[in-house]
Protein backbone atom coordinates (compact mmCIF):
# COMPACT_ATOMS: atom_id res chain seq x y z
CA UNK A 1 0.00 0.00 0.00
CA UNK A 2 1.16 3.50 -0.84
CA UNK A 3 2.24 5.55 2.18
CA UNK A 4 -0.32 8.19 3.09
CA UNK A 5 -3.14 6.56 1.14
CA UNK A 6 -6.55 5.60 2.48
CA UNK A 7 -8.56 2.64 1.21
CA UNK A 8 -12.00 3.11 -0.31
CA UNK A 9 -13.80 -0.06 -1.38
CA UNK A 10 -15.66 0.26 -4.68
CA UNK A 11 -16.77 -2.55 -7.01
CA UNK A 12 -15.14 -5.03 -4.58
CA UNK A 13 -11.82 -3.21 -5.15
CA UNK A 14 -9.78 -1.65 -2.33
CA UNK A 15 -8.82 1.57 -4.10
CA UNK A 16 -5.90 3.51 -2.62
CA UNK A 17 -6.66 7.23 -2.49
CA UNK A 18 -4.40 10.07 -1.39
CA UNK A 19 -6.35 13.18 -0.36
CA UNK A 20 -4.66 16.40 0.68
CA UNK A 21 -5.32 20.14 0.77
CA UNK A 22 -8.41 22.29 0.92
CA UNK A 23 -10.49 24.26 -1.51
CA UNK A 24 -12.45 23.21 -4.58
CA UNK A 25 -12.14 19.47 -5.33
CA UNK A 26 -9.61 18.36 -7.94
CA UNK A 27 -9.46 14.72 -9.05
CA UNK A 28 -5.87 14.01 -10.13
CA UNK A 29 -5.48 10.89 -12.29
CA UNK A 30 -1.96 9.59 -12.84
CA UNK A 31 -0.63 8.15 -16.08
CA UNK A 32 1.42 5.07 -16.85
CA UNK A 33 4.34 6.38 -14.83
CA UNK A 34 2.42 5.76 -11.62
CA UNK A 35 1.30 7.88 -8.69
CA UNK A 36 2.65 11.42 -8.57
CA UNK A 37 1.54 12.68 -5.15
CA UNK A 38 5.19 12.80 -4.05
CA UNK A 39 6.15 15.39 -6.70
CA UNK A 40 6.39 19.14 -6.01
CA UNK A 41 3.44 20.12 -8.23
CA UNK A 42 1.14 17.90 -6.16
CA UNK A 43 2.01 19.87 -3.03
CA UNK A 44 1.49 23.15 -4.91
CA UNK A 45 -1.98 22.01 -6.00
CA UNK A 46 -2.89 21.19 -2.38
CA UNK A 47 -2.34 24.83 -1.46
CA UNK A 48 -5.40 25.80 -3.54
CA UNK A 49 -7.41 22.60 -3.99
CA UNK A 50 -8.76 19.56 -2.17
CA UNK A 51 -6.70 17.12 -4.26
CA UNK A 52 -8.04 13.58 -4.54
CA UNK A 53 -5.46 11.30 -6.16
CA UNK A 54 -6.60 7.69 -6.60
CA UNK A 55 -3.94 5.10 -7.34
CA UNK A 56 -5.09 3.01 -10.28
CA UNK A 57 -5.39 -0.75 -9.75
CA UNK A 58 -2.13 -2.40 -10.78
CA UNK A 59 0.06 0.36 -9.29
CA UNK A 60 1.74 0.72 -5.89
CA UNK A 61 1.48 -2.99 -5.15
CA UNK A 62 -2.22 -3.34 -5.92
CA UNK A 63 -3.62 -6.07 -8.15
CA UNK A 64 -5.49 -5.54 -11.40
CA UNK A 65 -9.04 -6.85 -10.86
CA UNK A 66 -9.94 -9.91 -12.91
CA UNK A 67 -13.03 -8.20 -14.29
CA UNK A 68 -11.03 -5.28 -15.76
CA UNK A 69 -11.03 -5.72 -19.53
CA UNK A 70 -10.16 -2.22 -20.69
CA UNK A 71 -9.97 1.48 -20.02
CA UNK A 72 -13.75 1.72 -19.63
CA UNK A 73 -13.55 -0.35 -16.43
CA UNK A 74 -11.09 2.15 -14.97
CA UNK A 75 -13.32 5.04 -16.01
CA UNK A 76 -16.37 3.50 -14.34
CA UNK A 77 -14.32 2.90 -11.18
CA UNK A 78 -13.38 6.59 -11.04
CA UNK A 79 -16.98 7.65 -11.72
CA UNK A 80 -18.02 5.49 -8.76
CA UNK A 81 -15.30 7.17 -6.67
CA UNK A 82 -16.64 10.59 -7.63
CA UNK A 83 -20.14 9.51 -6.58
CA UNK A 84 -18.90 8.00 -3.30
CA UNK A 85 -17.05 11.21 -2.39
CA UNK A 86 -19.81 13.49 -3.74
CA UNK A 87 -17.42 15.10 -6.25
CA UNK A 88 -20.02 16.35 -8.72
CA UNK A 89 -18.31 19.70 -9.34
CA UNK A 90 -14.71 18.49 -9.31
CA UNK A 91 -12.03 19.54 -11.75
CA UNK A 92 -10.55 16.39 -13.34
CA UNK A 93 -6.87 16.46 -14.33
CA UNK A 94 -5.04 13.62 -16.06
CA UNK A 95 -1.26 13.43 -15.99
From TrEMBL:
| Gene3D superfamilies, per the entry | alpha/beta hydrolase
Q: Which residues form the AB hydrolase-1 domain?
A: 24-94
Q: Which domain of life is it from?
A: Bacteria
Membrane-spanning ranges: none
- State what protein this is by name: AB hydrolase-1 domain-containing protein
Amino acid sequence: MQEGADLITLQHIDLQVVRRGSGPPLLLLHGGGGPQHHLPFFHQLTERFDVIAPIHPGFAGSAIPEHFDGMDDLIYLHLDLMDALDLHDAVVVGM
